[in-house]
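Section 3.1: Structural characterization of target chains.
Under the original work plan, the team committed to producing a structural model for every single-chain target entering the pipeline before any wet-lab resources were allocated. The record below documents one such target. The sequence was received from the expression subgroup and is listed exactly as submitted; it comprises 391 residues.
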Amino acid sequence: MFWIWFLLATSQCALLYILARRGESMPSRIQDAAEANRAVPEDKWPSVGLIVPVAGRDPRMEGALRSLLKQDYPSFVPVLVTAEENEPAAELVARLKQEFPVLRHVVAGTATGCGQKNHNSLQGIAALGDTVDVYAFCDSTHMAEPDFLRHLVAPMARGEASFSTGYHVVEPRDNQRTTLAYAFCVMLMRYLQAMSAFTQLWGGAMAMTRAAYVKYAVAQLWVENVVDDCSLSALLQVRGAKVQLCPGALLRTDAVNHSVPVWRAWMDRQVLFLKFCMPGQWKLLGLMCVMMALPMVCAGLALLGLVVGVGSGAGVLLAIFWLAALVSALHLWRGLLSKPVPLWRWCVAFADAVRMFTAVYWQSLKAWSIVWHGIRYEVGKGGVVLRSERG
């Protein structure tokens, strides 16, 4: 058991250190991408349909949508899609349309055989038809820089890839444990995404050429699936299609007084969508869960044994070395935040993130349903929706 603990503890700290270094390289990668984008002539940028499914009453939504509507891009058509004509999000879209006449509002109706987000995206695509060269998809609650769309579409403009993806970063605006733990989880996923072996589509910021949409029968996939990004990523892996990560296509989210239920629901989706659509990666996620949780448990037991006088000297020594290495790695991660956070709070947030990750993964072992925007979906193999129930 000691050597298993040693191996897992070493692997955990090494992974955190490698990902921290990956994070440190991101600003220079974004700058390099921006310079490459400036070299593309204006008439070489393809026309884009920017499709944004919109729902709910999130107070961040209006600002986020405005940031997408004000993109510095030569030719794009924004399409905001709501499920109903009279829902709160539709009222917001109507107000924005008065300010941005080019904006198109599509009312998708209720989804019956797939996730509501998939249905909304498909209806947005249907409204655009063949009038654009690229379909881009964004979430509605993240802030975008004016050059976001250029970064996202650049691989198509340069002929490098038919599919591209961005990601998002959470800016914690307080030092509460849940807020910091949520920010840490998103950072971890972003830096994993930056490693080519783990790059896959993120539905909050992804794009594809219209030709690729047809070639890979995306409509036929989404029309029966619970999720857009994981299902398509699984298909593209089987087909050997390349997904290019665009580090500069980065959306930002402020997190203040983040609640445990909201964080838990978000993490449930991250784990369950992988289980439904990419079971191989879900199993690897289980190994990562063990690698993150077991060293912490073993170190706690070793130090507790020291207190009560039954501990092993080798175990206590390993616990001390592991703790020092972990704090050093987390210190590097803390330096990647936009504002300083006390190191001890950041370490506690890491422990909370591991605890939540372990609980969510354990619950996912037998789960074949998921609640998303108030709709419970029962899901079969490959993410196919078997039944949906609205609350």
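Residues 97 and 103 are 6 Å apart (CA to CA).
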